[in-house]
Amino acid sequence: MAEERIYEEFGQYIVPSSWKDKVWDIKEYQRFHENTIKDKKAIENWWEKWANKLFWFKKWDRVLDDSNPPFYKWFVGAETNLSYLCLDWQIEQGRKNKLALIWEGEPYDETVKKPKELKKFTYYDLYQQTNRIAYALREKLGVKKDEILTFYMPMIPELLLYMLAVQRLGASHSIVYSGFSALALAERAIAAGSRIIVTADALYRRGKVKPLKEIVDEAVNICEKRGHNIEHVIVVNRTDRPGIPWKEIKDIWHHEFIKDIPENARIEPERLKSDSISYILYTSGTTGKPKGVQHSIGGYAVGLCATMKLIFDINEEDIYWCVADIGWVTGHSYIVYGPLMTGTTTIMYEGAPDYPWPDRWWDIIERYAVTVFYTTPTAIRMLMKFPLDLIKKHDLSTLRIIHSVGEPINPKVFHWYFKNLGREDVVATSTWWMTETGQILTGHFPGLGKIFPLKPGTNGFPLPGVKMEVLDVDGNPCNPGERGYLVISTPWPSMLTTLYQDPERYIDVYWSKFTKNKQWRFYTGDYAVKDQDGYLWVLGRADDVLKVAGHRVGTAEIESAMLMHPTVVESACIGKPHKLKGEVPCIFTVLKQGVSPSPELETELKLHLRKTIGPIVASDAIILFVETVPKTRSGKIMRRLLKAVITGQKLGDITTLEDPTAVKEAERAYQYLK
Ligand code: 6R9
């Protein structure tokens, strides 16, 4: 369990060899940090310094408007454009011919063990191609400011190009991860009011061609049935797959779409107000309805610029690789916008960490001499099972920073990658943040020129300019070592501006739990501990949200998907610890009267989950058949008790439990599984 690992590792420090002379005393950092958050002026000064490093069509009148909390406004009165920052401004700074993006596709040439497709784009290439797409979107489909397009795409360069193209027009995107089902896609496209979906014919994954267009067609039908018209589907031809279903006029091939747009087509980037919408990204919460997290432009850019420098210490010569999928917030902020606006060479790859070879990642790091690497604990755990020789045969000595994100990192896993990837001479942290925060908020800050010692498994310290606290249920600060709820007590620039078209839910979900002394505090939904030295340890979600292989999914979403199956009357989902994926859904399922449990039904339900929620969540899900699930007398499912059953912990207080046999039932079902 998470708590155990804390005490096991308390007090162990590491300083990477080449940082020995640049070690910041922890107290010294804390004083520095304290100074950046001591009052509003200090916070504004800190962030204003970063804002001054970016390009603005018009500068701000005020750094932070906090007159209507929690609707904070950053860089009020300022105007900029993310596409301009990532392209035009880079060219103006002399990076026209600098490599901006390196992309590798999945298919490999078996004989030479090299990718069949490899594309390199300079900043100028990206600029040209983005302009052409923006031009086509505006002239042919009338895309304009304030409209939201939905993207359902593989990890191909066109995704990044379409992102930058809509930013140029002042429109926004909502990217739906390509592992999601047609239903999930349709619900998100309706919620965003999109009339255009951009997709591909299919994607490559572990040697297989997985159709996307058919899923989009299904989503378009669902939209239509619900009264929402998708006017156009733009399709990138990724795999040359024959027999793709096609509707003339509605469906448009990407290559046809831009064919007649001249190379030198130019779209003047819209001058956008700082708090205009850059994008929305749907994420899971504790109810079945996904939340449309809405991000700004100006504040978002400032938070990214600061963290690219502070956390990743990005310099002109760095080759930077973040292995995330762009469908995840990590890809938005740290594959596309952050790296490009800071003039970095960013790598993007299609496929899987261990396919076609288990050393694919190490091969890529070696071939491009990657210096800064951003990864996930799930992927590291998966790669740890292969023989070390696979790492040793590659020269990884260029790496100097290797951070992780997405879930807690076990100290053992940290040691493994620090030693085997990092030669014990890299700065490495588990950087904590969320879709809602837009930017990394904790870690180590090599960009300051000094680091405090690394402590395996921790999330380091909060970023300068940001106050984070661990509070007990009454809103009082916890003592060092005590578990509590993680809150963010000061606004930060890349913060979400609201939930799309749902300001009340925004207040309710994030700002209503900890309001002691009438202070506004953002509730993260995570459990955390600060240890006696002030290092932060985020332990995991405190609410009904799972992180399956780093992907965020609500138990309520899984339960409502189960209910859509005709044989299911009720279900209760909890997270079960899993060696590779961190956790997987374990679903206690009650069947309709007259329906008997069977291995066939179990398979069918898993297939159903795959279709409704998507393969990542469904593939290792456990379905347990029970007669009933434990509930309170008022009818609330007591997931806490199910969790206790599967982790072998004490049940705790069961006075509100209506029917004690429900726990016995769960125990029986779980025994059967074992
Ligand atoms: C960026 C991202 C957010 C949730 C968050 C927390 C977990 C993320 C973490 C971490 C421990 C880290 N989380 N990073 N937990 N250590 N370094 O993951 O966004 O998908 O919205 O998930 O992920 O539980 O609340 P998102």
TrEMBL record:
Show where the Acetyl-coenzyme A synthetase N-terminal domain sits: 29-86
| Coiled-coil zones | none
What Gene3D superfamilies does the record point to? 3.30.300.30, N-terminal domain of ligase-like
**Molecular function in Gene Ontology:** acetate-CoA ligase activity; AMP binding; ATP binding
InterPro entries of this UniProt entry? Answer: Ac_CoA_lig (IPR011904), ACAS_N (IPR032387), AMP-bd_C (IPR025110), AMP-bd_C_sf (IPR045851), AMP-binding_CS (IPR020845), AMP-dep_synth/lig_dom (IPR000873), ANL_N_sf (IPR042099)
Looking up PROSITE patterns in the UniProt record yields:
AMP_BINDING
Q: Which Gene Ontology BP annotations are present?
A: acetyl-CoA biosynthetic process from acetate
What does the UniProt keyword field contain?
Acetylation, ATP-binding, Ligase, Nucleotide-binding
Q: Where is the AMP-dependent synthetase/ligase domain?
A: 96-492
Q: What is its EC number?
A: 6.2.1.1
Q: Which Pfam families match?
A: ACAS_N (PF16177), AMP-binding (PF00501), AMP-binding_C (PF13193)
Q: Which residues form the AMP-binding enzyme C-terminal domain?
A: 557-636
Q: Which NCBIfam families match?
A: Ac_CoA_lig_AcsA (TIGR02188), PRK00174.1 (NF001208)
Family annotation (PANTHER family): ACETYL-COENZYME A SYNTHETASE (PTHR24095)
Say which family it is in. Belongs to the ATP-dependent AMP-binding enzyme family.
Q: What is this protein called?
A: Acetate--CoA ligase
